Amino acid sequence: VLDWPSAVSFTTRTTYPPVRRLARAQKKRILVTGGAGFVGSHLVDRLMFLGHDVVVLDNFFSGSKCTLSHWVGHPNFELVRGDVVEPLLIEVDQIYHLACPASPKAYQLNAVKTLKTSFIGTQNMLGLAKRTKARFLLSSTCYDEGKRVAEALTYGYARQDGVDVRVARIFNCFGPRMSLDDGRLVSNFAVAALKGEPLQIYGDGQATRSLMFVHDLITGLIALMDSSYSEGPVNIGTVDEGTVLSWAEEILSLVKELRAAGSIAPLPLGQLESTIEFVPAVVDDPPRRKPDISRAKEQLGWEPKWPVRAGLEETILYFARQLEEGQN
Ligand code: NAD
Ligand code: UDP
């Protein structure tokens, strides 16, 4: 006798995070490329909460299916494994184009593929926007070669073909679901502090960065997409500028506080707390990053709301859970 439960018991999942009910006229079909990544998955969460139909296209190069598992099977949600360098034929109202290896480790792994993703991938998604008359938002950054070509293509399609475009230039965003090993400041320092390993500063630590918690970025991206402002790129970031050394000290002290409060596991017996260590600088490391966000304030009525410290705390707790799960 085959002792196997009926298939129905596998298909009646009803426990999803809550989503708003929208009237058909307000409900948009939204494509998020790179939606399984760090920023993309938070964007998908917000768009789902708002009640839209969301399609994610991702090749899982640096993203993970786990970031979206809580939506799989929901009638408003669809996850497509695919590569933006291949054309995609679907009908959509909006496209958030985020697909691109973003961390230094990921984009240096295969520089040609990164450029193809930026160039051919963006061209394909702009072509899709042109055919479907969808509004297109590019997640850009400050003067990286691939993004430069992606921005040029985006404004080219806007001028020549009348595609309705938005360009966000994103500055140093962090939060839960960042990869533990992506090589960026917050993940490197937080994971090192949690493991009791040295926090390595490249150079003298006097370069500055302004850190933004991911929920502020998502609010900014949606505000930009829904705004009428299409004339030029909009910086999305914070003005909470600090030196790399000061961020290392803050993250280390937060980890110690959380450990003292019992919110994260103590270090193994005999293991000392992390120290801060200076190692040789990396080439072409920008000495300063502090975005001018006046355009976002004026045009979108957007400004960051999250205190960086609260964001860092949530992110450290996330990393601590990930490390604990990895050990089991
Ligand atoms: P991420 O690596 O977590 O996400 C990128 C996603 O794109 C991943 O899920 C990856 O699998 C997917 N992807 C990569 N190449 C693809 C391809 N060819 N086809 C389909 N999917 C592909 O990175 P992130 O931090 O979430 O960044 C998202 C976007 O925001 C990127 O475009 C990045 O350049 C931009 N950005 C992020 C920051 C930041 O601070 N996080 C700063 C500036 C710009
Ligand atoms: N950084 C560092 N140690 C690390 C990771 C980063 O000193 O383990 C420095 C890096 O050299 C840079 C800053 O932190 O000056 C921010 O690096 P990140 O890669 O997060 O962002 P970006 O340089 O792209 O702004």
TrEMBL record:
<dbReference type="GO" id="GO:0033320">
    <property type="term" value="P:UDP-D-xylose biosynthetic process"/>
</dbReference>
<keyword id="KW-0210">Decarboxylase</keyword>
<dbReference type="GO" id="GO:0070403">
    <property type="term" value="F:NAD+ binding"/>
</dbReference>
<dbReference type="GO" id="GO:0042732">
    <property type="term" value="P:D-xylose metabolic process"/>
</dbReference>
<protein>
    <submittedName>
        <fullName>Putative UDP-glucuronate decarboxylase</fullName>
        <ecNumber>4.1.1.35</ecNumber>
    </submittedName>
</protein>
<feature type="domain" description="NAD-dependent epimerase/dehydratase">
    <location>
        <begin position="30"/>
        <end position="142"/>
    </location>
</feature>
<dbReference type="GO" id="GO:0005737">
    <property type="term" value="C:cytoplasm"/>
</dbReference>
<dbReference type="GO" id="GO:0048040">
    <property type="term" value="F:UDP-glucuronate decarboxylase activity"/>
</dbReference>
<keyword id="KW-0520">NAD</keyword>
<keyword id="KW-0456">Lyase</keyword>
